[in-house]
């Protein structure tokens, strides 16, 4: 992840919005939220399978 951040700093052809520091934070938070939703879905599905 640090390597990607360094790559983003070296790249000058990107649009200004893609060079923002907020992009990395939002990407990580969205990835973490999708992972937690997936874990919750799998756990609830496993509970349904075990119960019935």
Automatic annotation (TrEMBL):
Q: What transmembrane ranges does the database entry give?
A: 29-50
Q: Which UniProt keywords apply?
A: Membrane, Transmembrane, Transmembrane helix
Q: Name one GO biological process term.
A: cytochrome complex assembly
Q: Where is the Cytochrome c assembly protein domain?
A: 4-50
This chain belongs to the protein called (wild Malaysian banana) hypothetical protein
Q: Does the keyword Transmembrane helix apply?
A: yes
GO MF, one example? heme binding
**Keyword Metal-binding found:** no
């Amino acid at each position: 992840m640090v390597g990607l951040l360094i790559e983003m700093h070296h790249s000058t052809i990107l649009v200004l919005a893609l060079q923002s520091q907020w992009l990395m934070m939002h990407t990580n938070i969205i990835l973490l939220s999708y992972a937690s939703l997936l874990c919750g879905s799998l756990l609830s599905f496993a509970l349904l399978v075990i119960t019935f």
